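Quick one, probably user error.
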């Protein structure tokens, strides 16, 4: 099967050839003819399958006829995160080189003024995150009544992020007769419900079982004591011991832990950058770029921030935390082993994670082996009651809880002073690094407006957490990682 057989226009085919692609991926081969036939499509595909081009290429072909009108975009693509939206825009730039199309990006963290000006001139393709799109609609600057084609991308992630009510609202604002393309990596019941609501007689295109991890990925569990300083030490050991490590993404469940872990890795000389929801748009793009170019080959990220990012050839994925949603595990490790390449994923597991690991193994239908000693080899843990009590201390912000954590007390005997040297708090720690300085708290970058709609407040909290901020540690770094971590 070649691209020429799919019914795409000459201009698009020329651009695809120039981009270096000769054979359509399975999702492209299956979806493109249906999109061109103006059918609704339900595409079940993970990122990395080429699904962006599966809708971008036929859209470009369709948009060759007709013209955009002021304030009335002809097509609308909804993406859960700004980075994904920016990636889709890049696809339009790459494959639309031979066309004069107007593409606008409506994402948070960018001024309304420029976006307004572009919309007023008329756009063929509007790529937006749901919240920012509704903000524009509420300001009366944008009409969705001219939308002929709607793409809802990463629908299951939209669900995770609480965006479904926004999507339902948006779907009421676009014409009933529009064509809808709906992409999701997984089909939980709520996604099945909304797909039935939004799509009319869709063609279902599925490129792999939703929960199948690529077979080229070596997956391992690594046992660790549960305290964060122990986990950080385990992570450093893993990174240093990894064979053929070219670049890696380290996933944390909570954005606060992303920042803490990032600082800790930097402190230990690892060339790392962070990506989490509290960073402003500039800092996120800069971090991603320095990771992409290899300047900082370790990216510490939360699920929300990293979802769907197009980073080819990641050699390693490290799960600093076992993800709370089993499906996130599949997405995380899907960052490696792409397009038939070999990849490795290591998941740090503590004795409190047994249920989460069992859920992952059930979802993927595979059991994951421990590398090295299993959890049984670790010293016995403290009773659950005690742990719960300490967590409550932390939540209520009691000084007792803080001081206990600060002293590194946990399930195992207290470490020697030299080994567990008390470390500065993240705030006090010297972090004379641009990437860290650029990370303004989201509230500072984008304050919640007084009387803001409930969805805005909800968005603000979507990857909030109350995770512990255990302070750093000491260790040695191998020569290959000792080159200076150039930040920013
Ligand atoms: P996506 O699933 O859209 O995130 O795409 C994953 C990666 O596959 C991107 O780096 C694309 O540039 C690349 N890609 C898209 N289409 C093709 C193709 N037909 N052949 C090879 N790579 C492709």
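Nope, works fine. Designed sequence:
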């Amino acid at each position: 099967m070649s691209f020429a057989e799919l019914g795409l226009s000459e201009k698009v085919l020329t651009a695809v050839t120039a981009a270096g692609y000769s054979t359509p991926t399975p999702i492209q081969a299956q979806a493109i003819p249906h999109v061109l036939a103006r059918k609704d499509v339900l595409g079940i595909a993970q990122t990395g399958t080429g699904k962006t081009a599966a809708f971008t290429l036929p859209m470009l072909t369709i948009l060759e006829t007709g013209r955009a009108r002021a304030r009335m975009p002809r097509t609308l693509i909804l993406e859960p995160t700004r980075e994904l939206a920016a990636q889709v825009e890049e696809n339009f730039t790459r494959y639309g080189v031979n066309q004069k199309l107007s593409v606008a990006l409506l994402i948070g963290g960018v001024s309304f003024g420029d976006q307004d000006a572009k919309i007023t001139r008329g756009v063929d393709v509007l790529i937006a995150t749901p919240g920012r799109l509704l903000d524009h609609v509420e300001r009366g600057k944008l009409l969705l009544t001219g939308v002929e084609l709607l793409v809802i991308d990463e629908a299951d992630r939209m669900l995770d992020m609480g965006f479904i009510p926004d999507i339902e609202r948006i779907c009421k604002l676009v014409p009933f007769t529009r064509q809808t393309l709906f992409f999701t990596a997984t089909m939980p019941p709520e996604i099945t419900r909304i797909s039935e609501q939004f799509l009319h007689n869709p063609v279902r295109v599925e490129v792999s079982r939703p929960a199948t991890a690529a077979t080229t990925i070596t997956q391992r569990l690594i046992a660790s004591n549960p305290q964060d300083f122990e986990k950080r030490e385990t992570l450093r050991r893993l990174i240093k011991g990894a064979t053929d490590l070219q670049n890696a993404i380290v996933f944390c469940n909570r954005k606060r832990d992303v920042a803490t872990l990032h600082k800790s890795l930097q402190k230990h000389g690892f060339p790392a950058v962070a990506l989490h929801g509290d960073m402003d748009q500039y800092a996120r793009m800069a971090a991603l770029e320095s990771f992409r170019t290899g300047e900082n080959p370790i990216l510490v990220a939360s699920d929300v921030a990293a979802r769907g990012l197009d980073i080819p050839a990641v050699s390693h994925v490290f799960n600093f935390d076992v993800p709370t949603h089993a499906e996130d595990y599949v997405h995380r490790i899907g960052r490696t082993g792409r397009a038939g390449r070999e990849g490795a994923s290591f998941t740090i597991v503590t004795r409190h994670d047994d249920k989460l690991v069992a859920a992952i193994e059930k979802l993927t239908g595979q059991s994951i082996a421990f590398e090295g000693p299993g959890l049984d080899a670790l010293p016995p843990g403290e009773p659950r009651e005690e742990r719960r009590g300490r967590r409550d201390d932390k939540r209520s912000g009691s000084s007792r809880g803080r001081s206990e954590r600060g002293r590194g007390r946990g399930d195992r005997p207290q470490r020697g002073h030299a080994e567990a040297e008390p470390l500065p708090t993240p705030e006090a720690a010297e972090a004379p690094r641009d990437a860290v300085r650029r990370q303004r708290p989201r509230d500072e970058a984008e304050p919640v407006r007084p009387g803001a709609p409930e969805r805005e407040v909800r968005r603000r909290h979507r990857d909030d957490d109350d995770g512990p901020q255990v302070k750093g540690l000491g260790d040695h770094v191998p020569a290959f990682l000792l080159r200076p971590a150039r930040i920013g």
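Confidence is low (pLDDT under 50) at residues 382-482.
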